[in-house]
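Help needed: design a sequence for this.
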């Protein structure tokens, strides 16, 4: 039996295991009380579970003092490959509201969200709040959209609006509070957007090329005028081939790009291999630091909000390429 078959059997077993776990937890709750309040809310707050730290940021801001929010994935965790643990399933089961990105970002968790929706959990799927016209198609699979919507601040504003509207629907009594928090969040995003544009203006036009470990930055490229190249596609679920490394190395050497970037949620080895391949062509490209791609920074980094994470990224990009 080859490795692929073993892997797929393991993943089927794992999926079945998760589905059984979901069913057991859901059945227990349904028998218990049949409401979303399987576990009492904390001090009257709604229990909200988000999948990623990026969603944690927007939900914490807009939910404010009415929300007790936890993120299943911590800083630096790769959402494309993330498998929910039994503990995660319990946390989602105990939550009043579950918030996820959609657009196949949480590629291994779709069945769980569907099961939770079927038993009446309030689910906020960010994908539902984004105008289809602004979504980018995956170059290799045009029927799939790129999930990395947070790297265009104007799209993240739509995500924030969707969160606020859904919280206002679910908890009507406090609708005005969520809208006020939304407005404050949008103001901070508008300031961030201007900051990014000001910094990008420091980079010469021919150096506005962003080479990273995977294709997380295409929305960034469209919004802020960068050519963007990732060694892997829009998911990290496929390895970069040697042909990809070699083609990209040739391009970097030819265009004399000053820097390429590693990402916090993807192992550095691919970008290091790319740097070595460029060097073999007689051109020294530097590694321009580590970008946050699919998560916020951890609290000790000082970059643990959406705004601070994006500022850290744009500062690293501009300082290395200008
Ligand atoms: Zn990604």
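Sure. Designed sequence:
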């Amino acid at each position: 039996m080859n490795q692929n078959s073993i892997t797929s059997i393991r993943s089927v077993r794992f999926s079945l295991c998760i589905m059984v776990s979901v069913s057991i937890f859901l059945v227990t709750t349904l028998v218990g009380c049949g409401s979303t309040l399987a576990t009492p809310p904390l001090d009257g707050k709604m229990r909200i579970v988000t999948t990623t730290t990026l969603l944690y940021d927007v939900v914490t801001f807009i939910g404010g003092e009415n929300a007790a929010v936890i993120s299943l994935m911590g800083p630096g965790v790769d959402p494309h490959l993330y498998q929910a643990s039994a503990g995660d399933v319990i946390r989602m089961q105990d939550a009043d509201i579950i918030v996820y990105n959609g657009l196949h970002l949480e590629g291994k968790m779709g069945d769980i969200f569907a099961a939770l929706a079927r038993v009446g959990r309030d689910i906020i799927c960010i994908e539902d709040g984004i105008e289809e016209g602004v979504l980018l198609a995956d170059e290799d699979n045009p029927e799939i959209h790129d999930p990395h919507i947070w790297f265009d601040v104007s799209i993240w504003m739509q995500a924030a609006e969707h969160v606020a509207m859904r919280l206002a629907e679910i908890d009507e009594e406090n609708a005005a509070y969520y809208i006020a928090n939304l407005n404050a969040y949008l103001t901070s995003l508008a300031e961030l957007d201007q900051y990014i544009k000001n910094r990008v203006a420091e980079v010469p036009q021919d150096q506005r090329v962003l080479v990273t470990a995977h294709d997380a930055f295409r929305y960034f490229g469209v919004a802020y005028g960068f050519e963007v190249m990732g060694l892997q596609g829009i998911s990290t679920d496929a390895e970069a081939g040697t042909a990809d490394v070699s083609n990209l190395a040739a391009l970097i050497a030819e265009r004399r790009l000053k820097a390429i970037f590693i990402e916090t949620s993807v192992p550095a080895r691919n970008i290091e291999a790319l740097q070595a391949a460029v060097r073999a062509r007689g051109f020294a490209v530097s590694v321009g630091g580590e970008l946050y791609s699919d998560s916020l920074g951890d609290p000790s980094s000082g970059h643990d909000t959406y705004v601070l994470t994006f500022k850290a990224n744009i500062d690293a990009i501009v300082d290395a390429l200008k």
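DSSP finds ten helices and eight strands in the chain.
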